[in-house]
Amino acid sequence: MRFGLGGGAHRGGGAAPPAETETETEAESPWGPPPVIEVRSLRKTYGSGDATVRALGGPPDELTGEESGVDLVVEQGDMVAVMGSSGSGKSTLMNILGCLDVPTSGRYLLDGIDVGGLDEHQLSLVRNRKIGFVFQSFNLVPRTPALAQVELPLAYAGVKTSERRRRAMAALELVGLADRMDHRPNELSGGQQQRVAVARALVTAPAMLLADEPTGNLDSHSTEEVLSIVDRLNASGRTVVLITHEDEVARHAKRVVRLVDGQIVADVRQAPAEGPPPALRDAALFASSAPQAIAGPAGGSR
Ligand SMILES: Nc1ncnc2c1ncn2[C@@H]1O[C@H](COP(=O)(O)OP(=O)(O)O)[C@@H](O)[C@H]1O
Ligand SMILES: [Mg+2]
Questions:
Q1: Over the stretch 258-286, which tens digit does the pLDDT of each residue have?
Q2: Top-level CATH class of 76-102+117-288?
């Protein structure tokens, strides 16, 4: 498990880190809440010299030498699918959005907080409070009952035992697993395990749910179950960012962003950011429309 455990590598500039409470800027702007994600000119390269791999951002401009980066703004309540073929930069972007890694250059404001200035401890707090992670491989703790799994992020956040229990049970209820709270991962199906992971992700009431191929290990029935939970979470206001290469998953999103070679090449809105996601807007229509390739750029593969 990576959340809450301090995976980032960003160093503060030598100054003593401010107290925990100072990492959040609660100032409300007259224009309403800040975007959940605001990414500007984001670039990420791995390695150096001839071995440099550009994972996010474009090549230098032939005339100016200027290097473009990824710009992405996600408003509160939106449900965004990030698509792209293997190697297009999806996981790199997810790791940066999840404050699990830092960009080479560019700016990232998460729920109004400039995470570029935070040290490792502060980043782990931001991860714990602002982000609910869901991974393809569930990442549950072995031999641990569902209820304890879901309580874990609350324990990191210092929530007291009785409140922890109450909230974890409510989260399990929400994913339809109240009757499985004593079950350990090996006593649950894949779909149920992922629903426990979703409960664990949402129990802290994070600003955003960040999911990397959440249905990648699930059969089609479990996939629909998990997606319908995510749909309902979004309908109740939770911001969702899903990384996926499956059209079936992406059609649940209100917006589809497509990455090719570390750059956003398409950004298609399928439903307004406010209001219910596509599957809940017109359930009958959604159910009857066959999953089909979502329009990308001409000739672009997913
Ligand atoms: N730790 C790393 N070191 C070197 N190159 C990396 C590393 N992680 C990813 N890359 C490269 O960055 C590019 C984007 O990778 P990634 O973000 O994992 O893509 P995706 O998740 O879309 O498959 C790929 O060319 C990949 O080989
Ligand atoms: Mg990946």
A1: 999 999 999 999 999 999 999 999 888 88
A2: alpha beta
Question: What per-residue string of b and e applies to 50-77 under the rule 16 or more CB within 10 Å gives b?
Answer: eeeebbbbeeeeeeeeebebbebebbbb
Q: What does the pLDDT look like over 86-100, one tens digit per residue? A: 999 999 999 999 999
> Ligand 2 centroid to 191 CA: how many Å?
21
Please tell me the number of the ligand nearest to residue 259's CA. Answer: 1
The pLDDT of residue 174: 96
Distances, alpha carbon 255 to alpha carbons 113, 133, 250, in Å: 23, 19, 8
DSSP letters along 27-44, please? PPBTTBSPPSEEEEEEEE
Q: Could you report the per-residue pLDDT of 136-187, keeping only the tens digit for each?
A: 999 999 999 999 999 999 999 999 999 999 999 999 999 999 999 999 999 9
Q: Pick the residue whose CA is nearest to atom 12 on ligand 1.
A: 55
Query: CA 231 → CA 14, 59, 73, 181, 225, distances in Å?
Result: 43, 37, 20, 23, 10
> How many angstroms is it from 46 CA to the middle of ligand 2?
15
Span 39-44, average pLDDT? 97
- Quote the percentage of the chain above a pLDDT of 70: 86
- Is the CB of residue 136 below 6 angstroms from any atom belonging to ligand 1? no
Ligand (nearest to CA of 212): 2
Q: Is the CB of 244 under 6 A from ligand 1?
A: no
Name residues whose C-beta falls within 8 Å of residue 66's C-beta, 6 or more positions apart in sequence.
60
**Does the beta carbon of 96 lie inside 6 Å of ligand 1?**
no
Q: Is the CB of 91 under 6 A from ligand 1?
A: yes
